[in-house]
Structure formats: structure tokens, C-alpha cells
């Protein structure tokens, strides 16, 4: 019934390749079905001006898409001279999600930038980016511990994300592009392994949805992210 | 207990002044407590390229803040040469919210741009903008009906928005700036008079929140927007 | 004979609302007929690099227009990514006019930025901006005196501005939009209460004008600004 | 008494080299003392959208300064990515001045862009640009007549410009950089050979100036431009 | 003696993965040692304005580098708002190289954009991009033939590129980053399988080099590209 | 046989006017046939951040073209808001060429920016710019010696540039615009008086060229630059 033939509560095939990028302190190539995002975490000593002297660190994210990650070629944002509103919205979301599980006091005055670049897009790129970014961030902190820059990994939670939607009245998990284009509503959930909600962004694409439907999507998201937490831990050897 | 002294489920004082702007086809100055946003709806015959020949109309929004709408002066975006990610995120949200209750087929190939400019900011500007923009949009459509450009007002719902948050563990309605700065979590709800959810954007500012807390915030939002729907109708003489 | 029905030497109805903006150290909403400009003066400790160590202060201005301040909607400069030549020309004029009556040595190393944002445009916005900006600037300095940041208000003059023009061969005072569009020539005069000329900008729109005509326009401007000086003083309670 | 040793009513040495640029339809290198501006007039068939179908032509100007035209090197505007407010103000002034003496109906739907590029700056560059631009524009129209594109030169006046100022209380003509930096007030006058005023822009640099002083500056400007009109005609062989 | 331990005339290990990108009409992931570049060729019906009506096609290229492709993170060009001079220089080179072996008349009025995005950088990225881009372009044309859009592949040559340099006085082939940083001179050669030179760009990094040295570098390049032509053909199954 | 009527190995008429710009520490107006480039060298105390504390100086270049330097008017880069890829490529080339013959350790921590602005273009502007820039740079260093800022001129070589090309199968020296437009291949050579190659940039415009042809072009370039070295020395009085 779904274009993908998946059950309503079935994730796409997930693959996490930690350490994919050769130069970054932490990295992870995440694949969810056809969607593929390269996440790299870069450690830098400099810190934004508003944090100087506070003893706190900074975690931020940037997001991009290769011009031909999509079915038809999109403009290169660097050539157009600015990032789209969509790009900025996504990278702000990724950054907030990562900061929500980071103990920035324990981190000290350093910064980590996680770059999430979409190599192939087939729906759910922002959620895949968050799930992969967690692994890259973890590895970057682990690198800092190995280098004696940090005493321990300053993470206070584990975060992953998945999109859910109403497809022909049925709540379904992990929309791909075909499903997303035809969904009545979709919602992105950023959840923690401890069961908390970090971000929820629900949008009615066709008609407004109900509280009950929102709850049904949230249940699917909890089920989906529980599998993603397992995949993250497996990738990290935990 | 709230800095504002309000009850947890108490909205700020709301005022809607329809027809505030002299030149616009529809306009509304909305004040929620100290927050003040001028919403103007401009009707134009031209339509974005991707809609030409489809018979559908377009509704979009732009958002801005006067440099000294805030406690300390912010940079003027026009002088800096670009709109911030926050600005773009907000104007995309307003546009989606308005399109969700517009019958764009009935509207025909015309476009309406709703400008939401914050004259004074004290928290909740994006929600106030949506609530005021609905009134401006309604009036612009009414103007088109009066001019015989449209046969009837092509709206299929009524939309309003309010922010809720967890303040010292208590769910509270309609955060002002002081409350927002200190909230554990906050969520913006865009709801329809028919009880549907158009947009929900919840963010954990300090610690992740629970499903029960999300539900409690949603109940507050329903109560708050029911008052806003009344205020909109009163302003429109309905 | 004038589209407005006013006598040649008659100003539009003028209203000055001091303290209109809640957060600014000084502010004034000025209305001249339909034209309405919100002027806010923001005090900041930082100073442009070229003044550091000189003991002198800085007064500058920025100008903007809400997209639908005009009869038909104009592009938002922040969205277009740059301020127009007209905008820059106007804000440079306002800044120079304010600096001309400020004792920047007495002011010390602080800066005041006066934002002039046009809420409704019907001709004469730059002149209204200057007249209103004087009140906002005065109030900001008064605020500094009340806070013991300054010993006395460092103003050495009082400034106001008005546009005059040749309309069907007759010199007329304070052009509105309809008159301005059809004027043969127009000139903006920035004058002081002491009778001095701070700025004069005259432009032939159709045919060159004569020295005698320039003098006639200047006389009208003197008469017009003398009323504006009274209105400023009344608004300031002087 | 003037730093330049000139009499108060003495112009700098003026030189106009018509046809200086090899490719342009009209051009003139103007030198006033040390200030040197290359003016080229380019004829193009395309016309701005707002003029299509009106039968009217367009005359516009652009202004620039070589980075080392000045005593110390200035940023290259192309490298900085935008034209300064000063540059835009000047090029708008030049364009208005040229349109004031052009019969745009007789010109027909074509456009002429006059580029004024300052090779060496020593004060008065905008005025020199206008005086030189007139010659370049005349020659471009003459070229159109020679090519049978136009029946006659569609100019209805002759325009030139000069700056005057108050230097140690004395009105002086044609300020150079040293004088301009130290003037109490300065004014740029764009005048026609028929005795009309096209533009006047007076600015008090130190203290406001009086009506009598403005008149004295205007008399100097008339005397100065009468010499410039002669130089233009000599250069054009008229 | 080389940091890489390679012989002076030894290429890095080369790998070409045709069809790597899922959506593009043609693609190739090229790896030369650690350097890795993803090349995608996108076929589009639209053509630059200057070619409309000429019957000729267009081949162009864009180049980018993921922010953490390098040893330390570089700014994201999309976030900075412009492409660097280096980026533009490289993408112009790739485009010229591809056009040099394309029969644009046979291609007809369509365009192909080849995006070359560096996933990992270790020297020689522009040369790897050209070598990989040829394969992507070939596959895109093959796709057009399969779709009956073209009768035959409109390529009139085969192109590949390699950098050579003088390292401690010795001419060496295919510089990696460590060698490049320390080379006295380096030259990029874009050569055809038929033995022709399409582009040569030689630069003295320390001291000028001699004609004999340039010749020696060219001989190495010929030897290196002959291996690359073989690798391209193998990847294409030719 | 050449459009210009010149012999294959004949340079255009060359003229170097040292000291042409009044304010710059060093300058030279170079004319090669119709092509005319104004080169000014500006000495500044500030230095790029990456060189602070290294004791080394910096030499860089910027390139521009007046809008009507060309046969038809080109856009003004300052108005368009960015420098073209071609402009950036050229100014990077000029900068590298000058640094190749400068002893930056002997120069100490100061910087020289050489601006090369094309007044009239007829082919070969980048080569003329390099040849003229050398003279401007030499004079700026000489100025520093005269001012006792430097003990001696920190140049370790003499540099000049010329373009050569294949025109109707014949190698020809110093292409003008007509020849360049129709050349099969062209190459720019930046050579030193000591016989070394600083830069070579060869491009096949129509068909790939051979090693023998590259050598023939290099021989012509050597002959051409030997004349240019003489002209430089004559202009410098050496």
C-alpha cells in the first residue's frame, strides 16, 4: 500500500559507516534506503564571540546538498551566492538537536562544527543528518578524550530523528520521497534514547491533522528511533 | 509565579486593529501584551512561474523586525544584505499556515503577499504575526469580492497561533520575552477553529520534554487560540 | 488649486508622538498628513573605529520603508539583499542633518543610531524623518542626562526639514505624493531654528528653475519649519 | 589665502579631451587641476522595461573611482561586492543632470549610459564628471546623427557643474581636496547655459550657512560654469 | 625520496567507479590515492541565451569541495556567499577541457553540466575532476543515445589530466598534497588520447623553471595520462 | 597575413609611461598597440593575518576593466556586485607573477597592492598588466628606499609577459583582439629576464596543439619578452 511496499511501521534499510571521512575528527556516512548523507565533525579551538570567557563550548551544524543529489539538478548554493531558507532552517534544527544532548560546560571553550552533506536524496535528509551527526559528534569527542583534550565524552543523551506522515489516512514511518510528496501531513521527531522529545515539527500538507494523529505519529517515531539508537550504538561499538 | 503575574492558562491582553494600514488591500495591527506586529496583505496579479497556467493562486509571507523593536538595537537586515535564518524560518511558517486554510483553486491565478513587520517585540512575534495575518488576508479577499475580482472569499478555515512553554515545570500559555528566555521548552501551535493542527514546532531549550508535557501544551494552545478566534471574528465584524 | 486643496504656504496637519517606541532611549512617531514615520534613537557604547580615542561621539541614521507603506507594494530591501541608492542617499542626509546640530565633543565617545522607518508614505518622508529624528535624538540625550551619562544635552541647534516645490508655476509648501509626482521642481530644505541652512537639495524635475524661484521656495521652507520647530518643542514639553 | 593660491572666483585649470576613449560612441577626458575623470557614452538599443512602448529614450550614468585615484588606496568596490552610498548618490545625480537637458521623446527608444571613472581625485570629481559627461553625451548623439539613427541631436540645453564653498568665511569657487576638507560649507551647482538651475546640493560641514551665503555661492557658480560652457563648446568645435 | 615513496614517474593508485550517483544521467567517482572526487553529468534541455538558435550545445562544469574534505575545515562557500577565485578558476578549466573534445554541433541544443565535488582532498583535485568528468560526460551522452535523443556520442576525443612538479629538482608525476606543498614548480596538463595538448598551466612556486624542465614535466604527463586513458576505457567497458 | 599586418614575430608598438598616476608610490601606464592598462602600486603598512609575525611581506594585485574599455559596453563589476571568474583568475596570475620575483623576506612586513585597470582593451590585457605592473612595483620599492623604509630594492628578478598563439597554423607573437578571437590556440607566458618560466598558460581554442607548437610559441615569447625587458629598463632609466 505504501509506494515503497514497506509496512506502515517499517524503517528503511539503515547503514551507518563511522569514520568514513579521512580527515575529520569524527565522521559517519549514513544511508537510509537511497538517502545518503555524509556527516563530519570538525573540532576547532576558536569559539563564537558571545561565548568567550564563559567556559562553555559550542556545537553547530551546516547542511548542504550536492547539486545532483536530487532527481533533477538543483542550483549550487555557492554559485547562487546564498543558502536557501530551507537549508538554513535544517542546519539550525541539526545544531539545536546536537546541543540538546551536549554538556557544553563539560566541553569547555572549544567548538565542533558538524557538516551534513547530502550525497543522494530520497526524502528524510534532515532526519538522517541528525542521526548520522550524533555518531560523528560522538567520535569527535572520543578523539578529544584520546588526545587528552577532554577527560570524558561530554554527552548527556543520545539523539536520533525520523520523519513520519499520514499517507492515505494511515500513519507511516520514515517517509521516502515518493511518500513524502503525497503525504497529507508529515512530522519530524528528534527524540532521545531516554524517551524525551527534543524537537517536533509537524506540518499539515493538505488538511489539518488531529491530536490523535499527532500521537500516532509520535508512537511510530519512538519505535523508529529505538532501532536507530541501536544502529548508532552498533556503529560506535557500544 | 509567572514573571508576568498571569495565570498559567492566561493569554496576554489582545488587541486587533483591522484596516490599520492605509494603502494595503487588507491589514491588521495586532498587539499581544507589548508585542506589536503590523500585518498587511497586498494583492498582485503576477504569480510565481511554477503556478502559471495551473489556475491556482499563491499566498506567501514576509517577516521583518524594526531594528529597535527589541530591548537592544539589532542590525537592520537590509543593511547587512541578507535575511537571517530565523527570519526566513518564520516567514516560511507564516506562509504555510495561511496556505493551509486557503482554497488556492478558488482563488485563481493571483497572489497575495502578507508582510508582517514587528514594531515592538516582547516574545511570541511569529504567533502574533500568524493571528494578525489571518485578519489581513481575510480583508484582502473581502476587498477582491467587493471589487468583483472573486465571487466569494476563498478561505476554507480560520487559523491562529500561540506559543506555550514549560516554565519552572509548569505548562504556561502565551510566553512573553522574560518567560521565553527562561523556559525549559517551548512550542508554537498553529491551529484551526475546527480543531485541527496546521503546524506544531516544539523545542527543548534545556532538557527534553515528555509526550504528556507536549499534550498539556497542546491543550493550553487550544484554549488560547479559541479566544484568538473570537478576537479575529470580532475584529472582522463576524 | 493644489490637489490637496491646501493654500500654497500651508503645511499638512502635523502630529508628533514622543516616546512612541517602548524600548528605545528616545523615539517619536511623526505624522504629516498621511505620511507616517517612526523614529527611534538607540544609544550604544561602541563607536566607529575612526573615532576611537578622539573623545568624540557619533550620530548616524538608517532609513527604511515597510514594503506596503506605498500605494503598491515595493520589494523588501532585506529580501533583495541590498539597500537602494535612494535609501542610502536619504539615510546619509538624515545623519548629516543630525550631526550638524550635535556637539560631538560634548557627547563623548558614544554613538546614537536613529532609525527612521516609514509606516505610511505619501510624499515628504525624508523631511518628516528629519523632523521626527530631532525629537527622538533629543529624548535619547535627555535619557543619558537622567542616567548621569551626560552632564547636559549636547545639542547646539534645533533642526527640521520640509520639501517645497513648483507646482503649475506656483511655489508650494510641503508636497504630498500627488503634488510631488507632478511638480516642475522640488527642493528639500533642512533648516535650523536660528535661521541657518543645514542642507538644501533642489532638483529640476521638468525644466530648470531660476534663482528667484529657489529663493521663493526657501522662504516657504522657513515659514514651514518655524511651525515644525514649535511642534517639536510642544512635543518635548519645552 | 586659499591653499591653492587661487583667487576666490578662480577656476582651476580646465582641459577637455573629446574622443579620448577609442571604442565609445562619445567620450571626453576632463581635467580640472589635478582631478581627472574619463567619461564615456555608450549607445545601446535596449531600454529599461518601464520605458518599453513609450517611445522615450533613457540616459543614465555610472560612477567609479580607480582604487588609487586617491591619496591613499581605497577598496575596489567590485572586490567589496557593492557600491558605496556615496557612489550611488553621485551616479544618480549625474544621470538626473543629463536627463534634464535631453529631449527623451526626440531620442526614441534607445539608451545611453555614461560611465564616469575617476583616474585621479583632488576634489570636485562629481562636478567634473557632469561637465565631461555632457561632452561625451553630445558626441554620442552626434555619432547617432552621423549614422542616421537620429535626425538631430536631441539636446535641449547645455549643462555643467561646479562646487563652491565657504572657506574661512569667504565664498570660493571650485574647491580642491585641501580646500574641501577644511570648508565650512560646500555646495554643488548643476546649471544650464540658459541660466537655469538643474540641481543644487548645499551642505553645512561645520556651521549652518545663511541665505546670503547660499546666494553668493550661486553667483560664483554661475561665473564658473559660464567658463565651463565655453570650454565644452571649444572642445566640441562649436 | 618522494614523501609518498613512489617512483618519480609513478601515478597514485587510481580507481574509477562509473554510475556512482543514483540520479545523474552520467557519473563517476574517481579516486587517485586519497583524493576522491564525485563527478555527475546532468543533461538539461535549456541552453544559455547566447547559443539559442545556433544548433550548438553547451558543456559546462561546476566545482566544489566539502568543508571537511581538507585536513582542517574550510569555510562552506554557500555560507560565505561566494565562490572563491580558486573555485572559479578550476571550474572554468574543467569546462574548457570538456568542450575541447565535444562536437557541440553534433550535440544539438541541449546542455550538460558536470558537477565535480571533492569528498576528500589530497592534492590534484582539479586533474582528478577532469579525468572523472570525462567518464561522467561519456555516460551522459551514452544515456542520450539510449534514449534516442542523440544518434551517436558526440565526442571527438578523450581527455584526462595530471599534475606534475619539480620536487627537490626532480620531475615527478602526480603530486599529492605533501609533495605539492613543497614543490618548486608544478604544472597541470590536460591531454588527449591522440597526443594533443588541451591545456597546460605551469607555475613556479619557488624559482622560475626552464624550458627543459617544462618538457620533462610534459613527458611525465604523457606517460601518466596514457594510464588514465586506459583506466577510463576500462571503467566505460571499452 | 595577420589581420594586424605584423610579421609573425613582431610585437605591437609598446609604450611605458612611468609615474603616470599622481598619488601612487609607483605607477606605469602601459600601451601595447591599442591596449592600455594603468598600473599603480600602493604601499601599505598592514599585512594579511597569515603573515603577521613572519617577517615576510606581501605583494598582491587587483584587476579591473572600465565598462567601455571594450568594443561594446560590459557590465560594471561593482554594480553587478561581484568580480567575474575571469577577473579573479587574472588578478591571481598577476599577483603570483610579481611574488615570483620578489624577495619577501627582504621586504619585511609591509604589503604592496598593484592595481591594473584596463582603460582600453584590444587583446593581451593580462600580459600588458604584468609587464606594466613590474615597472610600478619597481618604482614603489624605489620610493621605499628613498624614504629609508627599505635598504635596497627587494627584487630578485625581472618579469614580463606576452601572449602567443596559433593563427592559421602559424605561431604568432602578441595577439591583438582580432587575432585572438580567431586563434586555434593561445598561450600566455610570464618569463624572467634570466630566461626562466614563471607561468605558462596554454589553451586549445579549436583543436589540441602539439608539443612542437608549444615550443614554437615559447620561442616567440622569449623573443618578445626580451624586447619588453628592454622597454621596462628604459622606462626605469636603467
TrEMBL record, chains A, B, C, D, E, F:
Reaction it catalyzes: tRNA(n+1) + phosphate = tRNA(n) + a ribonucleoside 5'-diphosphate
Amino acids binding phosphate: 86, 124-126
Pfam families reported for this sequence:
RNase_PH (PF01138), RNase_PH_C (PF03725)
Query: Which terms under GO biological process does the entry name?
Result: rRNA 3'-end processing; rRNA catabolic process; tRNA processing
Instruction: Give the GO molecular function terms.
Output: 3'-5'-RNA exonuclease activity; tRNA binding; tRNA nucleotidyltransferase activity
Alphabetically ordered keywords of this record = Nucleotidyltransferase, RNA-binding, rRNA processing, Transferase, tRNA processing, tRNA-binding
Domain (Exoribonuclease phosphorolytic) ranges: 10-140, 158-223
Which E.C. number(s) belong to this protein?
Answer: 2.7.7.56
Q: What is the annotated quaternary arrangement, including any partners?
A: Homohexameric ring arranged as a trimer of dimers.
Family of the protein in this entry: Belongs to the RNase PH family.
Q: Which PANTHER family match?
A: EXOSOME COMPLEX COMPONENT (PTHR11953), EXOSOME COMPLEX COMPONENT RRP41 (PTHR11953:SF0)
NCBIfam families, A to Z: RNasePH
User: Under which name does UniProt file this protein?
Assistant: Ribonuclease PH
Q: Which organism is it from?
A: Humitalea rosea
Amino acid at each position: 500500500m505504501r509506494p515503497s511496499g514497506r509496512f506502515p511501521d517499517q524503517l528503511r534499510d539503515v547503514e551507518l559507516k563511522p569514520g568514513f571521512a579521512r580527515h575529520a575528527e569524527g565522521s559517519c556516512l549514513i544511508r537510509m534506503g537511497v538517502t545518503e548523507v555524509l556527516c563530519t565533525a570538525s573540532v576547532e579551538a576558536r569559539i563564537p564571540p558571545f561565548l568567550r570567557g564563559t567556559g562553555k563550548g559550542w556545537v553547530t551544524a551546516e547542511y548542504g546538498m550536492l547539486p545532483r543529489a536530487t532527481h533533477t539538478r538543483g542550483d549550487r548554493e555557492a554559485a547562487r551566492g546564498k543558502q536557501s531558507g530551507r537549508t538554513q532552517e535544517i542546519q539550525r534544527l541539526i545544531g539545536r538537536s546536537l546541543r540538546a544532548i551536549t554538556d557544553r560546560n563539560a566541553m569547555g571553550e572549544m567548538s565542533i562544527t558538524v557538516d551534513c552533506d547530502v550525497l543522494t536524496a530520497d526524502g528524510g535528509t534532515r532526519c538522517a543528518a541528525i542521526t548520522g551527526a550524533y555518531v560523528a559528534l560522538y567520535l569527535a569527542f572520543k578523539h578529544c578524550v584520546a588526545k587528552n583534550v577532554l577527560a570524558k565524552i561530554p554527552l548527556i543523551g543520545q539523539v536520533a530523528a525520523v520523519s513520519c506522515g499520514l499517507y492515505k489516512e494511515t500513519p507511516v514511518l520514515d517517509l521516502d520521497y515518493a511518500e513524502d510528496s503525497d503525504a497529507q501531513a508529515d512530522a519530524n521527531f528528534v527524540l532521545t534514547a531516554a524517551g524525551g522529545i527534543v524537537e517536533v515539527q509537524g506540518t499539515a500538507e493538505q488538511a489539518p491533522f488531529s491530536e490523535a494523529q499527532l500521537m500516532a505519529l509520535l508512537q511510530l517515531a519512538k519505535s523508529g528511533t529505538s532501532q536507530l539508537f541501536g544502529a548508532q550504538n552498533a556503529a560506535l561499538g557500544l
